[in-house]
Design a protein that fits this description.
This protein starts with 17 loop residues before the first helix and ends with a helix. It is an all-alpha fold. Helix 2 packs across helix 5 (96-122), helix 6 runs antiparallel to helix 7 (159-168) and helix 7 packs across helix 11. It is 65% helix and 0% strand.
Amino acid sequence: MVALFAPGAFLLLPYMHADKLSSLAQLMDRAHSDTLSFPTTVNTALRLQQALGDPDCHAADIHRLLLSEPALSARAVAMANSVMYAHGHVQAVTSVRAAADRLGQRNLLSLATAAVIYQLKSGIRDAALRARAAQLWSHSVHVAALAHEIAGTVTHTDADTAMFAGIVHEVAGLFVLAEADRTPGLYQQVEGQLPAALEIIGRALMRQLGVPTQVADAINALPGASVLMPPEGLRDTLLLAKALAPVASPLPQLPSTTSERLRHYLDSDPTLYEMRNNPSAEAKALIAVLLS
């Protein structure tokens, strides 16, 4: 039997209707060949995301692209004025240019990437798939906010990188839900093989988004992984954030690797306990901006 999701494989699953089988096989082939494409509705946000990832891109081009995406411009101004980034600043920013200057290119990249992923969710018409996508995006946003705080206080890794990783770590799931909206029956067929499918699709999408290797490696290592004791690095930061997130992922998960030791650690560590039960003003502000 041909291996599941091998390049070019015609997945030999019993009783699967041929057209659905072909749709799933084509999706996996596109992932293997790096020919996955985002919907045209995300083109402006995707161009901005790619421009921000280019160190040679001029500030004027970034401002122009940012202004062409009104919702993203509003989020940039809101984030620049949030308690996370406005501390020490007496005057609120009122322009996109001033917001971009305050946030810096890395945080604008996180916002632009969030816009690409958010718009995947926004285009879904099927009610059940749209509900899953909304929950998955909410989970990602809470993970991003928690990861930013955990990185700074627990795992001592770069907080902005952790926030970006939280935003992008479920992009494959949202992409699959968007694809399933255009291909009736696809989600039901891929659901039983979702972890394997998401790994392949996620790798392809992160390459397309220019996600740094360090971040992609941490995300790819999440399925089935256990948190080290004491936690360290970006992968453990994401695992802790996912364990603490008040909104769970709606997608089928691999068997839980949360040990009794980890549960005790989450409950007994005062810093993590406070993050879970009393989110900081910074975390609340970031969640509000990304969910708006």
